[in-house]
Amino acid sequence: NGTIEWYDKRTRDMLYTYRVPTPPYLHPDMMANVGDMRNTGIELALSLDAIRTSDFFWNTSVTLAHNKNEITSLSDDVYTTSRIMVGDAWVRGGSGRTTHVVEEGYPVGQFYGPEFIRIDDEGKYVFRDKDGKEVNSVTAEDYTYIGSAQPDLTFGWSNRFNYKNWDFSFFLRGTLGNKVLNMGRMTYGHPGYLIGANALNDPLIYQLKVVPEYSSLYVEDASHVRLDNTSLGYSFATEGINWLEQARIYVTGQNLFVLTSYKGLDPEVDENRNNGLAPGVEDREYYPKARTFSVGVTLTF
Distance of alpha carbon 226 from its chain centroid, rounded? Predict the structure, then answer.
């Protein structure tokens, strides 16, 4: 069996702090319900008993989801803005740069910054400016759209197997097409961290000799597949034991592995950074999810 669902969700009068003139207003900042957002997408779920015999059973289920997020309005007749710059890419020894833009026609989580080309022989960044020229430094006018934290596709695949008294299950899930800003790689990519604090090989590979700067170099593809959980169990025969209805022993594992090209600790990060307007950032203090194992016994009386 299966289901297909399509949705079109519209959110109106979102709250944000706008800059206003003084006078007539007494304060240059004012909170107002102005912004509008739209989410459209499709969700697919399929479940199938692939094999069913007297001794063996296999059920498999697949879920697929695609969502398109778009800011449809940021202004009205009173409160106006063309774009809102959010996020912070501060590193020691440098000045902070915003990381995302909230702009009409673009999704929440739109990365906005310099386009990286290479590191030159002097150990300096080479960026592409607004005129398409290769330069060592850029201004906000040279920023461009360098990826989105919104995935093109999210998916899950679960399987359950039973063979006589044995049971086994696993669940894979992941995303395709989303980006993550690797703040740890950006921060510790300088040779000054090489001794003592740095556990990366970037300083040896890139030979960077300037203070790290936010750019598309550190906005990485975070597409991934994660083995979220798996379980193996055995159910004992309880015929002849009047006081015991069922007995099962099992072992489970959580977060067993991740397949990804992302160079950070974990491609899944907290999405509530900057009140949810700057998602897809792995902070320097981020701790990866733990891999856990457990053994248990289930008794039913």
Answer: 13
pLDDT single digits (tens) 4-35: 999 999 999 888 888 788 888 888 888 888 88
All residue ranges of the chain with pLDDT < 50 are none
How many helices (H) and strands (E) are present in the chain, helices listed first? 2, 18
Q: Looking at this protein, which amino acid is placed at residue 25? A: Y
**pTM of the full structure:** 0.88
Helix (H, G, I), strand (E, B) or coil at 263: coil
Phi, psi of 238 (to 5 degrees): -120, 15
Residue 186 structural domain: 2-300
| Total structural domains within the chain | 1
Q: Check residue 59 and give its pLDDT.
A: 98
**Cα(190)–Cα(196) distance, rounded to whole angstroms?**
12
**Furthest-apart CA pair in the chain: how many Å?**
88
